[in-house]
Structures are given as C-alpha cells and as structure tokens.
Amino acid sequence: MQLGLIGLGTMGANLARNAARNGADVFVFNRTSEKTDAFIKDYAKEGSLEAVYSLAGLCKTLKSPRVIILMVKAGDAVNACISEVLPHLSKGDILIDGGNSHYRHTERRQEELEQKGIHLLGMGISGGEVGALEGPSMMPGGDKSAYEKIEPLFIKMAADDGSASLTTGGAGGKCFTYVGPGGSGHYVKMVHNGIEYGIMQLIAEAYHVLKVEGGLSNEDLGKIFAEWSASDDLRSFLMEITAKVFKKKESGKFVLDQIKDAAGQKGTGKWTTDAAMEYGVAVPTITAAVDARIMSSTKEFRVMRSGIAPVSVEEDSLPKEVLPDIVRSALELSIINTYAQGMQMLSVANAKEDWQMQTSEVARIWRGGCIIRSAILEHYQKAFEGDKAASEHLRERCSGDRQLEWRHVVALGAERGIPLPAMSASLSYYDSYRSAWLPQNLVQAQRDFFGAHGYEKLDEEGNFHTNWNL
Ligand code: NBP
C-alpha cells in the first residue's frame, strides 16, 4: 500500500518509519525541506521511504485512491495543509488527520471535504515517540469504507492489546479499530488525554504526600513506584515511567529536583472538561487536574503567599511506616474512578451523537501502545462487554480497607495542608454516585426562592413553586 505522510515532527517521522517497516511505500513531505532531507538521510535504508518536495508532487506520485496522513500541529496547520493539498486530490481519496485535532473541527472539515468526495478520517494517535515507531494505539473515526481501506496497513502498525485470548471481534488483538462516524475518533483521543491528565495529577499527589508527609527520598520513591508498577492492580505505563523519573540523575543530581514545579498544557485536558460540561457528564478528577496545572503555573504568586502557614493538625495522625500502603490504595481507587469518568464521557456522547461506538472496544484499544495503558483497563473492557464479574471486581476494589485508606489519605491532606485536588475529587465523585440522597433539594429550594425557577417533588410529577417569604 502507498501512503503519503505530511509532517515530519516527532510523531510523523516515527509513524512514517513504522509504516515503511510494515511494508508500505511511504512518500514523505515536510514544510521545511531540510527536515525531509535529514529524515531520508537517516532512515531511507529502513524501508520504502521517499521524499517529495511539494504537495502537488505528493499527489502526482500517489495512485488513486490516495491515502495521505497529516501529522502536523492541530489547528491552523491542519487547515493550511488541507487547503493546499485539496486542489490536487480526486474523488474517493482519503485524508487522515493523525494529530490532536478537536473533534468538532474534524466534523466541520469532514462535511466540507465530503462535498468534494474526499473522505477525512479523524484518527487520534497515542504512544509518543516510541509508540509511533513501535506500535501506537490509534483511534480512527469517520467514513467506514475509508476506514476499511486503511485497516490492512494500520492494523499491522498498531500495538498489541495484550488480549489475544479474548474474543474481541473486529480488529481483535491490536490497538486499532473503527471507533465510529464523524469526529468520534478524535473525541475518544480527547477523552484519553483527559484521563491522562487525571492520572498524572493523581500520581503527582501521591508523590506530594509521600515526600512531604512521609519524608521519602527519591531513591525510596523510585523503589516504591517500581514495586507498585509491577503489581496487578497498578501496572501501567505512567507508573513505570514515574519510577524511572525518580531514579534519574544527571551530573550526580536528581533531574526531578532541578525541574520547576509548574506544568503547562496544550489544551486537550481543558477540551475534555469543556466537552464533559456540554454533555452534562461530571469529570471532577480531570477538571481538578487541569486546575492543578493552572495553579502550579502561578509560581511567583505561590512563592509570595507561601508564608501563610496552614492551621493544621500538629500531631502525626498516621504512623509514617503505613503511609506508602495507604497512599497506594488512595492512588489505585482514585485512578479507577478517573477511568470511570472517562468511560462515562464515552457512553454519554455515544448515545447523544448516535455514533454506535462500542465502548468496550475503546477500552481494549487503550490497553496497549497508549499513554493510559494499564492493567485496570482489562476490567473496564470486560465490564463494558457485560461481564458482571469484571464490574464486581472494580466495585470490590473500592471497598473495605482500601476505601478506608483512601479516605485517610484525603483527610490527611486536609489536616496537614497538602493540596490533593484530584484525589479529593475522585473520592467525592465516588461518594456522590453511591449516595441515594444528595442535598440538592436545598439547591432547588434556593433557586425557587430567588428566581421562581420551580422545583420537582419526590412524590408528585410536575413543576412546583412556593412563595418562600410568606
Ligand atoms: P508538532 O505538533 O510539533 O508539529 C510539527 C509538524 O507540523 C512539523 O512537521 C511542522 O512543519 C508542521 N507544521 C506546522 Br507546526 N505548521 C504547518 C503548516 N502551516 N503547514 C505545514 N506543516 C506545518 O509535531 P508532533 O509532535 O509530531 O505532533 C503531530 C501531531 O500529533 C500533533 O497534532 C500533536 O498534537 C499530535 N500528537 C503528538 C504527540 C507527541 O508525543 N508529540 C503524541 C500524540 C499526538 P515544519 O517542520 O516545517 O515546522
């Protein structure tokens, strides 16, 4: 199969090599031609990789129906590339946007391109540099017949999902499947990134408690995280890399200790929160993670106010030696509840947009190659396939002593003035959804009091109003 690839950044270059290694004839184009030359010099020997120096030339070289993947920065760069390549395309050609485009932008572009007979697949790709080369998780959405044309190549390029023994159907065994029509592929990638934000923040909070309250060194933390990341319950890519981060030294110093405590963002976390609001889904852990990055970025302001000591509980409320174990529970249960928020975002959008998406398949293709791959996802996949034992397993993990330990850690943060926004949000999420009664009867009453918004009653249908001042 021939593949045209536009954009030789980190992801594009590695994906081009991956495609060539899997037997494709790949024609690469980059706006800055020096990058194309350097790429060909370094990698042409790996497979059928050829440079082209104009988009007209790219389209002339490729046979119809052409398949061209865009691996450029989301936003204006995607618009610019589409406008430039469009005059050289023919009916039936397939464009794949493999970047992190917003799913609504993808839908708009699909509509415009379909009028010209061009299919646009919005395909989220996760796995970073190594994943792009060795096997990413890919989440394509759009026209089904276009998907079927690209499947034979991309399925070979994708990561294994670790579930070869399961009857998954479709593209079982590989982290690649047809997600659904329209912008569903990019929506799924956005939710993936939202979950990624949540888990990264939760791991950072576990670090905060263990470092500040437990007094653990980077060496201790490296050992603890390596042990946790090898366990059945916390095994995941993000835990593995965290263990390595704690151990990494340069010039005899821990790299982590040299890094500024202020995290930036490219926007996919905020997009997830925005979309969750639009669909009426609560994703408090993901929102807390976005907020935490925003607050971290105000370093100067925080330093200025750091003289304000908390009025905190002085005595040790928990023996230090039990801290790693209880933090482990808090982390695991908070993560379980973050995936739950993401899965709910998939289910609600799926129903509202009528994407006919198999949410269990999304959990499956997240099990390998991507940044949020983890052992927990096997249970989510099975639970969404209807396996009651898997649902029960997730419920059971959040019960008993582990739940108590989760509460202890969140309480400890509050007592000692250690901010744990994502862990607290996960616990509140869990508690809200296990509460048969919530105090929103009072909120209804207040709304009716000041705005005559009316309220619903427990025992009678309809909208009621009370004159509260009489
Ligand atoms: P970047 O997001 O850094 O984009 C760099 C590429 O975009 C270069 O090839 C650059 O060409 C090209 N480009 C730009 Br910028 N503006 C352009 C324009 N107006 N016309 C043509 N080309 C233009 O690269 P990346 O990190 O490889 O990511 C590619 C996509 O994949 C992005 O959407 C990203 O969000 C997504 N993604 C990245 C990762 C990751 O780990 N990096 C992971 C998952 C998804 P130039 O060389 O001439 O400047």
Characterise this structure.
- There is one protein chain.
- The protein is α/β, with parallel strands linked by helices and 470 residues long.
- It has 3 domains: 2-182, Rossmann fold (3-Layer(aba) Sandwich); 187-433, Orthogonal Bundle (N-(1-d-carboxylethyl)-l-norvaline Dehydrogenase, domain 2); 439-470, Up-down Bundle (Single alpha-helices involved in coiled-coils or other helix-helix interfaces).
- It has 21 helices and 9 strands.
- The protein has helices at residues 10-21, 33-43, 55-61, 76-85, 103-114, 128-134, 144-157, 184-213, 218-229, 237-247, 255-258, 268-279, 284-296, 299-304, 323-353, 359-365, 376-384, 388-397, 400-416, 421-433, 440-451, and strands spanning 2-6, 25-29, 49-51, 67-70, 94-97, 119-126, 137-141, 249-250, 253-254.
- Strand 4 (67-70), helix 4 and strand 5 form a beta-alpha-beta unit.
- The longest helix has 31 residues, at 323-353.
- The chain starts with a strand and ends in a 19-residue tail after the last helix.
- The model has no long low-confidence stretch (mean pLDDT 95).
- The structure holds nicotinamide 8-bromo-adenine dinucleotide phosphate (NBP).
- Residues 7-12, 30-32, 35, 71-74, 77, 80-81, 99-100, 125-126, 128 line the site of nicotinamide 8-bromo-adenine dinucleotide phosphate.
